[in-house]
Design a protein that fits this description.
single chain; six-stranded mixed beta sheet; Nuclear Transport Factor 2, Chain: A; alpha+beta
Length: 112
């Protein structure tokens, strides 16, 4: 079973392919932390879309976004800071649903 620590560790390490493998083929990732940047929430559907976003935002050439101060509350929920260039956003990430194999089927990221 995939735990939230697996997600944040792969995110922090910038390993997009490993991160994508935590998700089911038809997974949904909804990130409303973008509202803090005055941008529309990010809504991704499918493992490939999730991998490409993480590759470009967190992994490619060191990525533009970093995460710090990770605190896992339980196997489904974590708090951390995302550094969007010069803007820092405190978020919570929560696994809402898993598939039969224990992979992430839906993950929501909310600003705090």
């Amino acid at each position: 079973m995939v735990k939230i620590l697996d997600f944040v560790q792969a995110l922090q390490d910038g390993k997009a392919a490993e991160l994508a493998d935590l998700f089911s083929m038809n997974a949904v990732l909804h990130d409303s932390s973008m509202l803090k940047l005055r941008e529309e929430p990010m809504h991704l559907e499918g493992k490939f879309a999730i991998e490409m976003m993480f590759h470009h935002k967190f992994g490619f050439n060191g990525g533009g976004y970093k995460i710090r101060a990770i605190k896992c509350r339980d196997e489904n929920r974590s708090w951390y800071f995302i550094f969007y260039g010069g803007i820092v956003v405190n978020v919570t990430a929560q696994i809402e649903e898993r598939d039969e194999e224990g992979k992430i089927k839906r993950l929501n990221i909310y600003p705090l």
